[in-house]
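wait is this the right file?? whatever heres the structure
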C-alpha cells in the first residue's frame, strides 16, 4: 500500500507537467498562465510529499504562485527545504498581484539584485522591465505590510494558534497580519475617525483575544481579533488625543486597559466601564504607558509624558507611587521587564537619543544611559532571548532598530537596518516554529519582522552615499559610458556606472548642505556636465563628469533654474523644468507647491507666457519636458492629485486626458526618446510604483513595483531608468 507521501509525490509529478512554462511571459498580450489549481495547490502537494525544493518549484514558476500557500507549505514541510528563493518571497509577498505575474516578476528581480539572492527571471516576449542592478540591502527582515504610515504595533496569539501582528495607521484603520505567512487577515478594522496612535492586546477571562486601540478621535475601541469585529461601543471620556494604551491583569483577576491623553484612565475590559477616577498629574500628553507587577504583588503603570516626567501608579488603588522622575527630556516610549536577579525594571526612551533603565522598586536609574542611536528613540519593547538574556529592542528616528542586554546595558550586535524612515513602533513575539521575532513599524509605510536570535544582516551594503539619496539624473559621456549622477543628504554628489551599478571615482564634494536637485547637459565645447543645487544654502555647482572636477565658482545668490530638459525643485519646493520652444525662446515651466497652477516663463525677458496651465486638483510635485515627433514641445506634470498630465508648452493647452493609474502623489518624472522613436514619460509615485507612459498616444505602457515611495527617477534614451526608492537605487532596462 502506498503511503500518503508517495501519493502526494505522484500528484506533484503530474501537476509539474501542467506547471511547465514553455512559453515566455508575454506582457503585451495574454500571459501564458498555468491552470489556477496548479498555481494555488501545486506547492501544497509538493510539501505534503516532502519534495518542495528549487527543482520542483523553479524560479520561472514563482511569479504565478499563491505566496501565502507557498509560505505555509515551506513552513509545514517535514524536512528542511532548500529554497534559495524563499528570502525573496519574504520581501515581496506583501506586494503580490495574483492577476499580474509580470508585476511579481519585477518585484522578485529588484529584491534578487538588492539582497544577493539569485533569481532567474522568466524571459519576456515583450513588455516589462529587466533589472540590471540594485544597491545591496543589509536587511534580512520580512516585510509583512506596506500601506499608509504605520504608527503602532502589537502582537497576539489567537485561539487557533496563529501568531498575529495588529497595526494601527495614520489612515484611521487597524489591520491584522499572520506572522507565519505574512498575509493580512481579513480586511481593515474600521471605526476610528482619526489616526490610530496606540494599540495593545489582551486575553479576557472568557478566552476572547482582543485588541485595544486609542485614536486621535479621542476614543478607545475594543476589537475581537477572532472575528475582526468591534466589541461594544467606543469607550469615551478622554478629552484629547489618546496617545498611549497598555493592558494588564489586576490582582483580583480583572483584565484592564490603561489609556492616556494628558490624563490616565483605567477600563475594565469585561464590562467596558471606567475603573475609578482618571489619574491626574501630568501636565502634557502622555506618550507611553507600560505595566509591571512588582515583587510585592502590586500592579503598577509607568507613564511617560511630554511634560518631561515619568510617573508610577498603583492600578489597584488608582494612586500615585512616589514622586515623579523629572528632567528627562521628552520621553516617547516605555516598557517593563524582570531581570534575571528578580528586579522589575522600566526602560524609557526619548528625544535625547538615549534609553534608560529604572529600578521600579526604588525609582532610581540603573547604570548609564544606553547610547548608540543618533536620533530620537521613540519605540521600545522587551523580551528574553533563548539563552536567558533579558533584552530591550528600540526603534529610532535614525531608521535603525537596536537590541540591548538589560543586565549589562550593552548593545547586542549591529543595528538592524532596512527601514528608510523613522521606526516608531516595536513589538516582540514567538512564532510557532520557536523563532523569537521583533515586529517593527515605520514612517516608510512598512511593517518588518526580524529574527532576534541572529539579528544579523545576510549581506554587506554597497558602499556609497551615507545619507538619503534625494535626486538623480543620467548622462552619456563622450566615450559612450552611460552614467547616473546622484545627490544626497550627505552633501555629496556621486557618479555611477549604469552597467555595473558601481560608483565611479570619489564623491564630488563641495556642497555644505543636502544636494536636493541634479540635472545634466552638454556644454557647447562638448563637455558633459552635471548641475547640482543645495537645499537650504542657495548654491548651484557645475561638475565636469569626465574629470570629476568642479567648473568655476559656485553659483550663489538665486534659486537657479537648471537649464536643459531636466526637472529640479526650487528652494520653496516648487518643481521646475526648462525647454527651448520652436521659435528659439528658452522657457522655464514652474509648478506651484501650494495650488494646482503651472506657469510658463520666458527666461530672457522674465515675463510669464500666457495663462497658467490649470487642470491638476492639487499641488504640482514634478515636471519634465520633451519634444514629440511632430515637433511640439510638451511639459509632463505630476501632482498630489495622483495624476500625470501632458501640456503643449507653445499653446498652453492640455494634450489628451489625464494619465491615471498611480494611487498616490506623483513625486518624480523623467522623459526619454526610445531607440524606436517613441517618446515616453517615466513617473515615480508615493504609491511605490514606477510607470511608463507613451506621451504621444497617452497610454500606460508598464508598471514596476518598487520597495518604497519613489524619491527620484531618471531615464536614458537607450531605455535604462534609474530609480531612487527608499534606501535602494535601482537600474532597470525597459522591454517595450
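ok assuming it is, sequence goes like this
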Amino acid at each position: 500500500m502506498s503511503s500518503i507521501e508517495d501519493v502526494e509525490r505522484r500528484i506533484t509529478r503530474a501537476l509539474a507537467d501542467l506547471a511547465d512554462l514553455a512559453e515566455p511571459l508575454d506582457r503585451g498580450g495574454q500571459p501564458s498562465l498555468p491552470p489556477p489549481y496548479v498555481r494555488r495547490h501545486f506547492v501544497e502537494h509538493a510539501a505534503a510529499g516532502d519534495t518542495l525544493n528549487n527543482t520542483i518549484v523553479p524560479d520561472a514558476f514563482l511569479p504565478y504562485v499563491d505566496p501565502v500557500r507557498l509560505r505555509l507549505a515551506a513552513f509545514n514541510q517535514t524536512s528542511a527545504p532548500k529554497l534559495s528563493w524563499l528570502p525573496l518571497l519574504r520581501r515581496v509577498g506583501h506586494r503580490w498581484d495574483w492577476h499580474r505575474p509580470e508585476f511579481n516578476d519585477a518585484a522578485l528581480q529588484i529584491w534578487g539584485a538588492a539582497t544577493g539572492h539569485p533569481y532567474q527571471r522568466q524571459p519576456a516576449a515583450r513588455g516589462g522591465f529587466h533589472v540590471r542592478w540594485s544597491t545591496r540591502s543589509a536587511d534580512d527582515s520580512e516585510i509583512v505590510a506596506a500601506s499608509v504610515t504605520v504608527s503602532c504595533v502589537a502582537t497576539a496569539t489567537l485561539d487557533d494558534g496563529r501568531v498575529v501582528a495588529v497595526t494601527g495607521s495614520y489612515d484611521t484603520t487597524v489591520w491584522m497580519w499572520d506572522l507565519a505567512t505574512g498575509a493580512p487577515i481579513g480586511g481593515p478594522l474600521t471605526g476610528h475617525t482619526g489616526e490610530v496612535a496606540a494599540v495593545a492586546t489582551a486575553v479576557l477571562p472568557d478566552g476572547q483575544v482582543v485588541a485595544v486601540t486609542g485614536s486621535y478621535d479621542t476614543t478607545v475601541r475594543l476589537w475581537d481579533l477572532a472575528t475582526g469585529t468591534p466589541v461594544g461601543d467606543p469607550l469615551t471620556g478622554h478629552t484629547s488625543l489618546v496617545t498611549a494604551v497598555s493592558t494588564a491583569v489586576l490582582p483580583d483577576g480583572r483584565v484592564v486597559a490603561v489609556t492616556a491623553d494628558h490624563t490616565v484612565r483605567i477600563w475594565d475590559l469585561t464590562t467596558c466601564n471606567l475603573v475609578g477616577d482618571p489619574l491626574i498629574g501630568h501636565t502634557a500628553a502622555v506618550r507611553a504607558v507600560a505595566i509591571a507587577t512588582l515583587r510585592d504583588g502590586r500592579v503598577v503603570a509607568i507613564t511617560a509624558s511630554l511634560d518631561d516626567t515619568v510617573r508610577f501608579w498603583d492600578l489597584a488603588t488608582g494612586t500615585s507611587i512616589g514622586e515623579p522622575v523629572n528632567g528627562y527630556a521628552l520621553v516617547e516610549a516605555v516598557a517593563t521587564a524582570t531581570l534575571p536577579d528578580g528586579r522589575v525594571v522600566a526602560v524609557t526612551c526619548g528625544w535625547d537619543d538615549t534609553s534608560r533603565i529604572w529600578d521600579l522598586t526604588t525609582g532610581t536609574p540603573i547604570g548609564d544611559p544606553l547610547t548608540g542611536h543618533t536620533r530620537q528613540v521613540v519605540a521600545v519593547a522587551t523580551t528574553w532571548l533563548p539563552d536567558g538574556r533579558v533584552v530591550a529592542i528600540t526603534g529610532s528616528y535614525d531608521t535603525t532598530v537596536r537590541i540591548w542586554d538589560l543586565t549589562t546595558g550593552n548593545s547586542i550586535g549591529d543595528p538592524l537596518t532596512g527601514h528608510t524612515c523613522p521606526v516608531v513602533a516595536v513589538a516582540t513575539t514567538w512564532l510557532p516554529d520557536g523563532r523569537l521575532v521583533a515586529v517593527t513599524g515605520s514612517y516608510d509605510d512598512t511593517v518588518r519582522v526580524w529574527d532576534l536570535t541572529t539579528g544579523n544582516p545576510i549581506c554587506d551594503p554597497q558602499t556609497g552615499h551615507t545619507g538619503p539619496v534625494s535626486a538623480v539624473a543620467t548622462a552619456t559621456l563622450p566615450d559612450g559610458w552611460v552614467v547616473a549622477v546622484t545627490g544626497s543628504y550627505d552633501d555629496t554628489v556621486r557618479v555611477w556606472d549604469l552597467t555595473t551599478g558601481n560608483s565611479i571615482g570619489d564623491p564630488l564634494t563641495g556642497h555644505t548642505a543636502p544636494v536636493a536637485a541634479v540635472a545634466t547637459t552638454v556644454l557647447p565645447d562638448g563637455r558633459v556636465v552635471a548641475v547640482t543645487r543645495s537645499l537650504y544654502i542657495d548654491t548651484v555647482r557645475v561638475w565636469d563628469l569626465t574629470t570629476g572636477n568642479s567648473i568655476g565658482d559656485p553659483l550663489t545668490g538665486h534659486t537657479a533654474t537648471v537649464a536643459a530638459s531636466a526637472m529640479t525643485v526650487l528652494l520653496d519646493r516648487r518643481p521646475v523644468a526648462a525647454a527651448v520652444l520652436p521659435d528659439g525662446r528658452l522657457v522655464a515651466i514652474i509648478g506651484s507647491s501650494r495650488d494646482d497652477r503651472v506657469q510658463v516663463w520666458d527666461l530672457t525677458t522674465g515675463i510669464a507666457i500666457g495663462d497658467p496651465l490649470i487642470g491638476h486638483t492639487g499641488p504640482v510635485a514634478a515636471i519634465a519636458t520633451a519634444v514629440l515627433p511632430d515637433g511640439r514641445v510638451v511639459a509632463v506634470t505630476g501632482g498630489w492629485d495622483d495624476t500625470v498630465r501632458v501640456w503643449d508648452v507653445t499653446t498652453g493647452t492640455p494634450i489628451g486626458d489625464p494619465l491615471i493609474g498611480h494611487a498616490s502623489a506623483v513625486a518624480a518624472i523623467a522623459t526619454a526618446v526610445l531607440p524606436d522613436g517613441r517618446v515616453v514619460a517615466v513617473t515615480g509615485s508615493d504609491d511605490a510604483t514606477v510607470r511608463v507612459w507613451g506621451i504621444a498616444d497617452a497610454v500606460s505602457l508598464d508598471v514596476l513595483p518598487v520597495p518604497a515611495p519613489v524619491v527620484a527617477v531618471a531615464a536614458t534614451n537607450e531605455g535604462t531608468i534609474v530609480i531612487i526608492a527608499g534606501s535602494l537605487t535601482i537600474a532597470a532596462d525597459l522591454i517595450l
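The mean pLDDT is 79. so i think its the right one actually
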